[in-house]
User: Which sequence fits this backbone?
């Protein structure tokens, strides 16, 4: 019997998680990974900290190198290789070596498409100018870093108001640049309800970053091919460096061209075992859909946590084991200077989209005992089902120690707990860490009252 | 109809939580609180930080003063009043005013006994000497503080290896004293399994505190009534100040003398609504029992979180509402300099006592992404039922950000989750806070393997 050949397209979180799980179960399988960039298994989420100077080398963002995968796991990682096409009937792939331009055909018994996502680039004049970056691969992060070193920009504009934008604004603050964050939306952080988003906006402003909302960009002014300013509907903002953080789209072209069905936002359609509709072909990570735990409906959520989990499940099932990813809540967090933000589950807008009657309330409390040094404000917003009292979502903004409390709420949602049960949780307390009632419980007590309970 | 008279004996966490809940439901009731000490509603847990100089005044530990309770809640708090006896048939109390020595009789329709706990003092020679303290009331904390100011001690000995002992050792370290921690047990922190306790012991040693285990104290050497040294079975340790942190016993003498049944360790027996067996009499807080959520058996766990929750439930039911305290897990946490520790649920020894077959495993990971500044070691130990795979307990020791992760585990236990479900949790991730797999999930994956799952 010939050795089984498992081919993985894409060598970051999902792809390499899967590779490890396959190897664990199939010591004899051939495992080949094609990765378009020059790196595999790196932390894309770490780029803002590398750019901001908190991480001293881009190499530290690489969890494991191709050589390490080869020597420790007998996993054949080929970086700088672009998979051009998949021929499903022939079980073959067309691959180009980006170093020398040569192409070859490879075959697979099992295939995982883990091609990730691509940043959205706005179709406006000047978007291709030098000094304008969309964070995607580690290479882009290195380009931003080198631009900062070589060009010594003084004015940075971050376009977008999401997680990465907050983090890039922080990075530029750390580099002592003059920073403006521009968002076309009426609030930053679209995943948050307006009251919490407004607090996040205040926090951004308090760190010295200029915040412009309700301003869509219409183009860029350039000078000899270099960006000079960002132009919005209302004004022109001088800029020596621009980062576009407008979200991402699944990089599912390869899968689509092969005829694989697509799901929400063009993500590859898969079941909860990460199997596509074609026997022997899986997809996982930022290119693939996942199920939302609360609605049971497929969604596209590009997050490192999800990519790792989906890759693990794909690898287990590809290796002959069984696992499912029950679903995700879109739990996410970010930090801007001394402010932390986090969310999980459904916000009010999302609940309304799903026609789920909800009650929400927001409280302000402290991250530590009020008398303990560095006790800072924390705002917690909870959303619960009006009918069942079950927790459906949580949003947090506050000082050090605020954001990771989202995990209590994510766990409670996954445990199908009611707000009353959150009041009863036996959470940890000591003055340096909390108050006898943790802020999430104070929020739960408030919401319980709003729901008409004790 | 006469106004209902609710009398509360003890004005700290449980008593004052109850008072607030009664007032909320019974605007017209008379609410009287008798408190032996000079303060009500103070944070006993905050004393080590006040003593260590992190909190600038003992007044900051007082959440609300008697005057504030009177003016804002119409709650009549009488500090420096000792309740000497309860006459159940007559529904009366004998009360002494400690300021002037006068006694009077008061009556109640509803009574809450929230008398707290008393520190255990060893019966050895010299235990009453000046310079030896057992932390109980805020007054004792103030005495320790004043002793530090007035006597300028240089050598401190902390007797005991529990939460408060770690915190007092930290306080003395902050005050630049030479600190020795002596414990008769073979490990510090009896609530932890030996491997984690050993890591805690190492952490204590690394901060410069001397740690002596397996050493019972046999007495104290004194000089003109002042402590000079702590004597153990093996040696004599010079000491200018000694703090005894040997645990507490329920202060249930008043309840026992009145004929109320007692439960574990002499705590007042109550149901999950905090009702004693006598109609109209409740008990809550460090003097009363609670139910352990995992065993369903009454236990005595003296913690501020439990006292607050039990007091709330007592107050709701005293006020005519309904609430139950489903049970507690003994979730607790502490900090010693830069090390954080936390636990919840059952450890291996406790599981064995209850004849529950379990599997445990301990992992080491990082508190943040490995490349992020101040990423520190975190050790997580999980214990699960061998039969059902349900999580039963967790223990954590590590650097900043380690301890509060215990809340994920406490919530998962309360949600009756299996270890496999913890692997699937959609927890928050960003490099400053975590890794894509949170350390508790890395521990869950390890334990899942040990349990024979994927």
Assistant:
């Amino acid at each position: 019997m010939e050795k089984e050949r498992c081919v993985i397209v894409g060598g970051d979180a999902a792809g390499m998680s899967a590779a490890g799980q396959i190897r664990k179960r199939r010591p004899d399988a051939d495992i080949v990974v094609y990765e378009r960039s020059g790196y595999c298994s790196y932390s894309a989420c770490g780029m803002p900290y590398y750019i901001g100077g908190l991480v001293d080398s881009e190499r530290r963002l690489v969890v494991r190198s191709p050589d390490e995968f080869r020597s420790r796991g007998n996993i054949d990682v080929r970086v700088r290789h672009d998979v051009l096409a998949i021929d499903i009937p022939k079980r073959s792939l067309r691959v180009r070596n980006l170093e020398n331009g040569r192409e070859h055909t490879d075959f697979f018994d099992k295939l995982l498409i883990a091609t990730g996502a691509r940043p959205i680039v706005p179709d406006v004049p000047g978007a291709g100018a030098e000094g304008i970056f969309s964070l995607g691969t580690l290479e882009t992060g290195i380009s931003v870093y080198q631009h900062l070193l070589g060009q010594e920009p003084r004015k940075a504009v971050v376009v977008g108001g999401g997680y990465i934008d907050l983090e890039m604004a922080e990075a530029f603050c750390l580099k002592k640049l003059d920073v403006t964050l521009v968002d076309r939306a009426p609030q930053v952080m679209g995943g948050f309800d307006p009251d919490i988003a407004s607090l996040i906006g205040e926090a951004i402003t308090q760190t010295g970053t200029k915040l412009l909302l309700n301003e869509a960009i219409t183009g860029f002014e350039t000078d000899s091919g270099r960006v000079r300013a960002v132009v919005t509907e209302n004004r022109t903002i001088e800029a020596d460096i621009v980062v576009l953080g407008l979200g991402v789209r699944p990089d599912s072209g390869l899968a689509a061209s092969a005829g694989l069905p697509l799901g929400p936002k063009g993500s590859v359609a898969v079941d909860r075992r990460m199997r596509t509709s074609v026997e022997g072909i899986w997809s996982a990570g930022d290119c693939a859909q996942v199920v939302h735990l609360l609605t049971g409906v497929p969604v596209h959520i590009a997050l490192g946590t999800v990519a790792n989990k989906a890759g693990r499940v794909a690898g287990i099932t590809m290796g002959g084991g069984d696992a499912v990813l029950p679903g995700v809540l879109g739990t996410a967090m970010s930090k801007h200077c001394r402010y932390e933000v986090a969310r999980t589950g459904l916000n009010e807008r999302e609940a309304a989209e799903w026609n789920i009657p909800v009650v929400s309330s927001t409280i302000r409390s402290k991250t530590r005992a009020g008398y303990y040094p560095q006790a800072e404000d924390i705002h917690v917003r909870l959303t619960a089902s009006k009918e069942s009292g079950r927790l459906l979502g949580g949003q947090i903004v506050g000082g050090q120690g605020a954001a990771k409390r989202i995990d209590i709420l994510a766990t409670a949602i996954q445990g199908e707990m009611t707000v009353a049960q959150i009041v009863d949780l036996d959470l940890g307390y000591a003055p340096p860490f909390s108050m006898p009632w943790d802020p999430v419980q104070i929020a739960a007590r408030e919401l319980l009252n709003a729901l008409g309970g004790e």
